[in-house]
What does this fold into?
Amino acid sequence: MWARIRRLTSPSFRLKVFLSSLICIGLPVIFSLTFYSYLTRDAVEEQAIQNAKKELDLTEENVSRILEDMMNASNFVQIDSELNTILKNKANLSIEGSNEESYSEYIEDRQVRKTIENITLLGEKSHITILLKNGKYYANYSTAQYDPNSLYQKKWFNELKSLNGFESYWSGAEETVFSYEKYLNPYQLSVGRTLRDSNQGIYGYVVVTLLESKISNILDNQKPQEQTMIIDENNTILSHRNSEYVNQPASFSDDINLSKSSQIARWDNQQYVVTSKELTTNNWKLVSIIPYKAATSNINAIFSKVFVLLAISFAIFFVILAYLINRITRPLRYLDRVVKKVQTGDLSIRSNVKSKDEIGDFSQSLNHMLDRVNVMIEEVNDTHKRKRKAELAMLQAQINPHFLFNVLNSIRMKVLRFGDKDSASMIQSLSKLLRWTIDYKEDKITFFDEISLVKDYVNVMNMRQKEKVELDIDISSQVYKQLVPRFLLQPLIENSIIHGLNQSAGNIRINGKMEKDNFQIMIEDNGVGIGKEKLHELNQWIHHSGTNERSHNGFSSIGMTNVFERLQLSYQEKPQMKIDSTSGKGTTITITIPLGGEDYVQSYVG
It folds into this structure.
């Protein structure tokens, strides 16, 4: 009972936002949209159709004017008595006779050309061709670009013979035949008629051709969303503002009945306002397709009262909503600032939100979490430092007893046998090694000091064994400055002398060089080498077994794994170590150390 009362008097944050949104947005939106849809649906559709009709009527007037100009040009040629008299006389001459022109015939030809040139001066420029039955022709364009007699080869030209009187044949859209117009005007439209004498015999033809772009320019003046086009009785597009659609079937004709002059139709999963109108000059149709949303986007003036009421309602509700949301989300904004400071690494900040809802609970949980994180970080850091120091001390201790035992035994044997000055040199080298081993407290030394240590070590070993080992060093000056773990190379040199060269004479080469993001150390010997199976086993053992396994045959377990383990403990970006060997030819150990780790520091040799 008390829990239910508490839930009602102190609702959760999610419930607060839900109730506020429902009261301030949901109810007015539902009411307004329902009212608006009920009042405006039919009126909007009717207004959209009327607007589309008006626009199509205006377009139809301009298109019809151009087509009528073509018809008027053919009419003039057909009915002008003076022109017809000249053309009939010319048509009755043989082609040879028409070529041998007298001055009067020349004047007549000039008059014909001037007449057909003047026909199109007032309207859109069109191309007029008059073909006579004897092969003679007249044209108002350059015949060098197109031979008028080529019209006889057109598929539709034979249809002209069946025409009577003022009947016309419209060819539809064709590729432009005028070479100088093809690039900008890829298509043309033509209308043809017959020229008949008093006995109804055909003595010639007149063809008027118009570039399709003259019409498409008119269609291009419509709205960007509107598609206006001319189609023929087969629903083939004859003119469109996009020439790519010309001579293509109207894809919408299968879904939309174009017999209706205007309608709201659905095509390609969208609603469109579709209007169509037949052209008076031929059987073509002018069709306009406008997306319904675009057609109704500007039909809002008649609903001004509804919009004013809607705007006032939303303004009031949004003010209330803004106030409530601000009060509710203020703790969230404060917690957001706290979390962002935590992201930057400030773990000392704490949240002071004390509300009794989910936000207050979250604030307390965040504070407890930060306290616990600080404790855990301190514990991890302390554990890591102690573990790291213990491991390094342990690994370092693994080298010293083993190494000192061998060296001291060698000195004892040398002094007992010879007692010469070489022992003094051997003892001097040993002193240096002992100093680095016992007195030096730093974990890392410069590579220059490491090479000096190796030289002393090889000097001692050469005193110990019968045959000497030659040490060849090739190190760049930059590598000498790098810091490396102390006694990094000594265990590897020991392996090369004892196991690689079998304590016999040989050569050991140390190479160091800098690369883009790391520096590389290579230790090569010309000893007995390692077999393929053993080599693979060693590489797998070093990189995967670590300190969990030890080998007591082949390479020294103290030497090889000790070097690899100390490398892994000394750098944040883990170094790589690889052994390459060929049996009977020698062994190469390659160490690659990335630059820029947390423990990497450059030092300079004094």
